[in-house]
């Protein structure tokens, strides 16, 4: 059975959604990726949707939606995106905070930078899971 990873932040509309999409793309063979928050947004951040579509050819509007913590199954690993306020709490065997800045309201370049950073961190997480470091 595959382990389950949750990418969480408060609104579940931007960074955690990008992480879920990239987790599914790069790590679907190793773990199941979910994203969630303590609040839901009516729709995923459209700048994030545009960047993920452009860079990775994934349409998050079709494959994902904003979810609450209790909308996802019990997970093994929790990745906090970096909340600057109180991050949501979810029980798990392993928890870490990626401390990513929210690009919402910032430039196109910032969104690309955030997506690439998430890609890097997702691939590193995959490596650590495979080598049993987590």
UniProtKB/TrEMBL annotation:
The keyword Magnesium does not apply. GO terms for biological process: response to arsenic-containing substance. InterPro entries: Ptyr_pPase, Ptyr_pPase_sf. Pfam families: LMWPc. Keywords: Arsenical resistance. PANTHER family: ARSENATE REDUCTASE. This is Arsenate reductase ArsC. It comes from Clostridium taeniosporum.
């Amino acid at each position: 059975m595959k382990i389950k990873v949750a990418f969480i932040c408060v609104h579940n509309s931007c960074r955690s959604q990008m992480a879920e999409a990239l987790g599914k793309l790069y790590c679907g063979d190793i773990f199941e990726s979910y994203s969630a928050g303590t609040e839901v947004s009516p729709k995923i951040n459209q700048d994030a949707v545009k960047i993920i579509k452009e860079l990775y050819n994934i349409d998050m509007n079709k494959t994902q939606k904003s979810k609450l913590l209790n909308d996802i199954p019990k997970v093994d690993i929790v990745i906090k995106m970096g909340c600057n306020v109180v991050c949501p709490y979810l029980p798990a065997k392993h928890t870490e905070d990626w401390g990513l800045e929210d690009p919402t309201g910032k430039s196109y370049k910032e969104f690309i930078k955030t997506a690439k950073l998430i890609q890097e961190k997702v691939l590193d997480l995959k490596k650590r899971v495979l080598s049993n470091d987590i």
